Amino acid sequence: PLHLNSVGHDVVQYYEDGTGTIEINQDNEIRRIVFRLPEIHKLLTDESKKHILWNVDHSSITRKLEDFLELVGEVKTELMYKDQIYKSYIAKLVNSATFLRTTNYLTVLLSSIINVMMFLLYEVADQSYVDHEHPFNKLSQNNNFAAIWVLCVILSLTELLQFISFASSKASLIAQNRIQKYFEKRKKPTTKNKIILNKVIGFFIGAFAILSNGICLLKIVSFTISILSWTITPLFCSISLMIHMVYSSPDLQNVLRSVTKNGKSLIVTAIFSFVLVYLFSIWAWFSFRDYYILPDGTELCTNLLQCFLVTANSGLRKYDVGNVFADTTWPSAEMIAFLLIYFAVIVTIMLSIFSGIIIDTFGELRQKKSQTEEEIENRCFICHIERHLFDRFPDGFAIHIENEHNPWEYLLFIIHLSQIEESDYSGLESYVANQLKEGSINWFPMNKAIRLIDVLVKEEQTQDYIKNTLHQTKANSKELIDIIGKFGVWQTTIEKAIENVQEILKSNQETTKLSKSAKSQFSFIEAHPSRLHSSFTKEDGVDEEEEDEEEENKGKRKAESFRKDE
C-alpha cells in the first residue's frame, strides 16, 4: 500500500475532486476517459439533476440518451449563467438551495398560521372582521386582526424574496433558451437594422416565454395574493395556502395534472354534456314548463335560458331534474320518460365519462411515476444495464453509477469539450466531439460496461453454448424421428415375417400329424399283413370279399363250438 502524509492526501483528494471518469464506445470497444471537471461543476444542483432524470423518456435507451443530450444544453446555459451572477454574494445567497428551501418553508408556515388564526378567531358578531372598512383602520380596534395583518406583511416579504430569486435565475434562463431556439436555425443578421430588429424580437420572445411559464405565473399570483391579504382582507391567505401546498407536494401536482393533461377531452365532453342538457331543456320548455314552479308559485321556466339554467342546475348538482317539478298526482308517461332518460344519459353516462377520464389519467400518471422510479433505482442511466448484474460484486451498482457511468460526469464532459480548443482535444475527445456534432449517441456505452466485460463474455459464451446445444438437440431429434419412422417400417416387415413363420409352423404341425397317422397305419399293417392284402385286393371284385367273410365266419363258428365243448 502507498503511504502518504497529509500533503499527499490533500493532493490525491484534489485530483479526485477535480477529475471525472467516463466510459465511451468506440468501434464496439469500451474505452475510459479521464478529464478535468469544469469549474462550474459545483453549481450543478439537485434540482437540475432531478429535472433531467424526470424529464427524459425512459421507455428505451435511445430515447433516453437523445433527451439527455437535448437537456444538456439547457443545463449548460444554466450553469454558465449561475457562474456569472454568483460573483455577487447577494445573488449567490438569494439563489442558493438553502435560501429557497427556507423561504418556501416560511411561506407555507405563515400561510398555515394565518388560516388557523382566522379559522379560530373570525366571528360574525365581531364586525371588525366582516365590514368593508379599510384594513389599516382596524389595526387599533382589534389586536387579533393586528397580529394577522403583521403575519400577512411578513408573508408578502417572503413571497417577494422568492419572486426575486426566480426572476434573477430561472426567468433569465427561460428567456435565453427560448430566444436561442428561435434564432439557432436562422441566419445571423449582417446589417445594423436587422441586428436591432432581432434584439426587439428577442425581447418580446423572452418576455412571452417568461410570462407563459407556469412557475413564473404561480410566483406572480402568489405575490399578488399576499399583497391583497394585508391591503384588502387576510382571507386571501387561504388561496395562498392552497397554492403553496400544491407547489410543495408532487402528489397534489399529479392530482392537478390528471385534470389538465387531458384538458381537451374534458372540455369537449363538458361542451357535449351541456348541449345534451340544452336539448332536454328544449323538451322541458315545450312539454313541462308549467311544472317548473316553486312552492311559493314562482315560475322557473319563463324563457328558454332560464329553463336551461334550472335544468342544468337541478340535473347536474342534485342529480334529479324532477326536484323542481311541482307535485303531480300521477305524472304522465312523457314526464316519466323525460326524467328517466335525463337521469340515464346526463347523470349516469356523461358524468361517469367525465370522472372516468380524470381517474384513468391519474392512474396513468401514477403508473408512469412508479415505472420511472424503478428505472432510476434499478437500471444504469447510461448503459441501461440492470442492477442485479452489478450486484454480483460488493456495492457493484452504487460504485458503477457513481464512478464509472455517472450521468453528471457525462454532462460535465460535454461542457468540458465546449470550453477547450479543438486543437487541445485528445483522440477520444475528438471522436466524441464529432459524434456530438452529428447528433449521434453511438459513443455512449449502451448495454456495455468495462466492469461487466468478463461477465458479459461468459454470458455470451453460455448463451452460444445453449444455442448450439439446442441446435444439436434439434438435429438429434430429427434423426430420432427418422429412426422412429424407419422402425415403423421395420415393425411392419417383422409382423409380416412373424405371420409367415406362424403359417409355416402351422403347416409343419399338420405335416407332423399326417406323418404320425401314416406311421400308425404302417405299424398296423405290419401287425396285420392279411389286412394289407385284403386292402389291396378289395378292388379285385366282390368274390374275394365274400371269401374273406366266409373264412371269418368259419373261425367264429369254431370258436363258439370250442366254448361249448368246454
Description:
It is a single chain. Strand 1 (19-26) and strand 2 form a beta hairpin. Mean pLDDT is 78; it is low at 536-540. The protein has helices at residues 6-18, 46-54, 61-85, 89-94, 97-121, 127-130, 135-138, 143-183, 192-211, 214-231, 237-248, 250-260, 263-287, 304-317, 333-378, 387-390, 396-404, 407-419, 427-437, 453-527, 529-537, 542-565, and strands at 19-26, 29-36. The protein is mainly alpha-helical and 566 residues long. 74% of the residues lie in helices and 3% in strands.
Salient structural properties:
22 helices, 74% helix, single chain, two-stranded antiparallel ribbon, 2 strands, 566 residues, mainly alpha
